[in-house]
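Researcher: Here's the sequence for the chain we discussed earlier.
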Amino acid sequence: MTRHEELNEFLTNLLSNAISAHKDTKEYEYQKQRREQIEDLLLNELTQDQKHFVDEVLFELGVASERETEIVYRQGMKDSVWLLKNLGVLA
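Model: Thanks. This is the structure I predict for it:
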């Protein structure tokens, strides 16, 4: 395994831990309730065509948001390492 692959695996583990910790927050619980409300709306208030369209859009937005979060998180970790190296804290 290369250093780059090791770093990616390390960052993936850190991201997984951060997501797990977030799932224990009140904010996550609130977002979960809101998602359930949207699902209820989709099931009961929209036509089948509207439901399909909204499901598709919400899925795409969710995937894009997750990817953006991961990119920002990884860049933050890389920036932190760069800063610590330049401060002489890391070799």
